Structure of Actin-like ATPase domain-containing protein:
Amino acid sequence: MDRKAPSDTLVIGIDFGTTFSGAAAAYSANPEAPDEIAVIKTWPGGNNITSDKVPSEVTYGQGSSAATPDTHRLRLDGHDDRRLRFTQFPLNGGQSSFPGDTFAFDAFNTKLDVAQLADTTDPADAGHTRWGFQIRPDEQRLRCLKLFLDPHQPIPSYVSIEDMKNQLTASGKNVGTAVTEYLRLLFTHTKEILARRYGEQFIATTKHQVVLTVPAVWSDTAKDATLKAAEAAGMGDDIKLISEPEAAAVYTLQVIQPSHLTIGHNFVVVDAGGGTVDLITYGIKQLTPLRLEEMVPGSGGCCGAALLNERFRQFVRSKLGDANFSDICQTKPRSWLMALKYFEDYVKRNFNPSEQAVFNIPFPGVSDSRESGIEQGFMRMTSADVGSLFRPIIEDIVGLIEGQLGELHAMGHKAKGLILVGGFGQSECLLKCLRNRFSGGEQGLEVMQPVNAWTAVVRGAVLRRLEGTELVLHRKARRHYGVKCNTAFVAGIHDVGRKVWDDLEKCWHATNEMRWYIAKGDTVCSTQPILFPFYRCFALGASRTVTDELIICDDNFAPSVYSSAPGSATRVVCKMVVNLQSVPKHLWKELTNSSGERYDRLDYKVGMQIESGGLRFDCRVDGVVYGKATATFR
């Protein structure tokens, strides 16, 4: 169970996002109000312009520029106008996943390779690595790295897997290493800014506690990969993970007062970011202090604000024509960059569907054309044009919300509110559309948008750690969890192909029998572990260290037999290594088999606790904990 941060701790929240990342901090001895938490707003390369977040992008200079012969055709949003010719393949457990690919370098491996890390003490190496606002608009960069940490989540259409692979290969880094280096740059800068506020001596002598946010829909493996990257980035060895919707709820329910939400009410958190939209439904169990219950498992989709940039690009291409658009991008790249930046900074943020406005998009140097809508260096966009870009994306978000509400309704419950946060969550258009769809009629939802919607997650992460105690009392299991075991073989019931001889117990066993201890959709207590019972037999003098595998299944119905065959519903999520050496001798049973051979047997349990940001394991015998079970995720 989490404890409240000590009174002399600097709590640092890190929100590593798909398109933008943020950082915030508070001193536990003098915690600020939710809206006064120190959010990092100045960034390298930002030209003294403040921003609540920094682009989640990194480039390796000369190394990355050699990735493809046409690197300088990449645009401000990272798109290459050749991208639509690429074929997207599903990632497979960190493999490069390209059919027929014989290239030895595993670009999509999410595990850190220390040998690939840049040496920040070497000026030449450090000089080639730039990140965030330091990257020039026309320069190639690694972007949307976060999406590649979870191979089981879909990659949006605007991200080219081929281009990502080429850049990683040219830089000699895999996804895990690139994420680690980005997080190290972000964290180092955060500490530098905090040193200006609190003083270098304070930062050097005060313990810091990092809270890192992760999507609610991520797999346990992806959460572990994020944690490992953060540890390697120098954030410490006691990093806490919290789901992004949970962090948003912590912040929003404290700053939006008064609201009509009270004990017994349910609300949907919609974290609409640049790359993805993450949702989860909570019920309020207690207000002071705030205590929640997860009512519906998290869901999400790749329908963030970055899709608007892609749709704007398609709109401009359709107006100018393929050949003309490609020619402008190659011969007048700054013209396209200026148009895209104006759309990003002004049109996308200020579009209001209830107003009949006309937007003039700057296209300097482009010839006037009535057919293309270009006049005096500007392209005219009506409210209907802009609305056509927003509509399919908002429809996807509405569908995700209705999915949450439908599951809640099937349980006999209704939602009273909807909390909208994230970068895209600031959108006036999205807010109005959701209010029009859900605030009236039978739904009657109160759609709330906090003032600091873009930083709600990172502020909430800091608040969550300052409070310490578990916020969400119960969670919904997103998948089945269990273990495979051997049972006494019974002819006619067990497949003869799974029949094996146990030479220690002198009997026949059936292998790969599944024991499911958590079913998908189960309500799981956040403060009490689920216990997996095991027994092990050891020859006298044999090692007391054992390895057990945690099996998961994402299907609605879990099979009774484990299979590792491709396409199987069951898969190993992690290996749990348990050292039983510290278990007292009197708890072991000394037995003798039918051949007169003596052996030891121990009955023990592995406790698994589902927390906001991941899984935690321990080993216990007769209710006493005898240490942690070390988990190695695949």
Q: What stands out?
A: The radius of gyration is 27 Å.
